[in-house]
Write a structure and sequence with these properties.
By secondary structure, the protein is mostly helical. The protein has one domain. 79% of the residues lie in helices and 0% in strands.
Length: 113
């Protein structure tokens, strides 16, 4: 028995790489497995090949997701460093403002000495 058309995606040779569709396709695969005669070596071989190809797609998806995570982490580090730089600049600007604000108050004291 060859793979039945119970799932058009499952019969395409690989399972879809979207996570939401994978669940349905694995359920379809389970149904195909349940409907396959264990003595039908060709059908079992087809199911094994489908499962192997699907595992490769899932592995590729996991690698791609890990790469996206690393990119977000790098972007977060850059943003954090920039935030620290801006905060340091803000503290320096506040300090200069306080110094300038207090300067006129100190000039008369310095002149009296």
């Amino acid at each position: 028995m060859a793979l039945s058309p119970a799932s058009s995606d499952a019969t395409s040779g690989t399972l879809s790489i979207t996570l939401a569709r994978m669940t349905g396709e694995f359920l379809d695969f389970a149904n195909l497995l349940a409907d396959t005669d264990p003595a039908d070596t060709v059908a079992i071989a087809d199911l094994e090949a489908l499962l192997d190809r699907s595992a490769e797609v899932i592995q590729e998806k996991a690698v791609a997701i890990a790469a996206v995570i690393r990119e977000f982490e790098a972007a977060a580090e850059i943003a954090h460093a920039e935030a620290e730089r801006i905060a340091t600049h803000a503290r320096a600007a506040r300090s200069r403002a306080v110094w300038l604000r207090d300067l006129p108050a100190e000039e008369p004291r310095a002149a009296r000495r």
